[in-house]
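Lab meeting, item 3. Inverse folding demo.
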């Protein structure tokens, strides 16, 4: 059972004061004093590049304790895509400044054939400097809904999902994104779409810049590729597809080489103090360390060879009707 004390009238006045000075008005009817949650009257913003849509803004303040607050700003365009900005800390006035310092346009990206919204956390770094950290991105491109979930922990891959939009049917090769390079993994079929991962470098603001840069690369590639045919994708990316195949074969080749090497150890005379003997006996531990450094468990597989797709579109081909 919750032990939170409902907000008093005096507490509400203190909490909303920094926002009232900037023209915001609290919406008491939509607020929940028992849950210590205050909502402000929504605002409408005129179309602004790069989204060029009317933006609907909602602001919420949660007060968990006297020195523990969270402010959430939600921006939603006419297309339904929503960007979220979160800031938490002990000082409501500082949180209001931190939220206001992030321009609305910071949440939106657009390119030829795609548009994306970015959700962030506005936080203070160790030296007291406010930084904007990407937490999630959503985009629409060529009949697909893309979702990128970014972990705040350095070294952890970002999760990427591709979902066909309602009424859309599409068939994608598993190396569709991996052809862009090592940071992109192959995509795997999910129940309703495809899932993959994106390797990011750095931490904090550097990690955010890297994620947003690679997101743009991903969306540009998807827009260009899905606007064409599977055959055009194969012809344009034939060399990159073979590189992906070789990359996927590395774990299996390493495993075969280790098994062959282990079988040959008894045939080789090694001294008791030999470095090679030490490496052989400790190779399992070295492999485990390597796997942890990669951030993911390698897949042992015989990768399929890239084939020339003759389909004229990305939609699944219906089976031919039997002849009478």
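The presenter then showed the designed sequence:
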């Amino acid at each position: 059972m919750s032990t939170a004390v409902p907000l008093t009238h005096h507490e509400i006045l203190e909490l909303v004061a920094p926002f009232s000075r900037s023209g915001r008005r609290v919406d008491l009817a939509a607020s929940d004093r028992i849950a210590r949650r205050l909502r402000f009257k929504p605002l409408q913003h005129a179309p602004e590049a790069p989204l060029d849509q009317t933006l609907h803004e909602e602001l919420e303040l949660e007060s968990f304790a006297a020195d523990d607050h969270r402010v959430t700003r939600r921006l939603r365009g006419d297309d339904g895509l929503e960007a979220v900005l979160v800031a938490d800390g002990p000082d409501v006035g500082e949180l209001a400044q931190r939220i206001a310092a992030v321009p609305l346009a910071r949440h939106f990206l657009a390119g030829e054939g795609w548009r994306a919204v970015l959700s962030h956390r506005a936080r203070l770094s160790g030296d007291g400097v406010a930084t904007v950290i990407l937490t999630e991105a959503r985009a629409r491109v060529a009949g697909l809904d893309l979702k990128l979930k970014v972990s705040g922990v350095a070294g952890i891959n970002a999760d990427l999902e591709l979902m066909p939009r309602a009424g859309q049917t599409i068939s994608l090769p598993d190396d569709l994104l991996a052809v862009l390079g090592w940071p992109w993994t192959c995509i795997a079929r999910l129940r309703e779409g495809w899932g993959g991962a994106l390797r990011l470098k750095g931490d904090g603001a550097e990690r955010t810049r890297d994620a947003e840069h690679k997101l743009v690369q991903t969306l540009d590639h998807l827009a260009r590729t899905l606007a064409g045919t599977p055959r055009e994708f194969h012809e344009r990316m034939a060399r990159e597809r073979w590189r992906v195949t070789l990359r996927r074969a590395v774990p299996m080749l390493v495993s075969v080489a280790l098994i062959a090497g282990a079988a040959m150890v008894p045939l080789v005379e090694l001294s008791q103090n030999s470095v090679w003997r030490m490496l052989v006996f400790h190779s399992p531990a070295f492999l485990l360390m390597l796997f942890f450094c990669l951030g993911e468990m390698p897949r042992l597989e015989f990768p399929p060879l890239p084939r020339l797709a003759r389909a004229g579109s990305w939609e699944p081909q219906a089976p031919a009707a039997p002849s009478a």
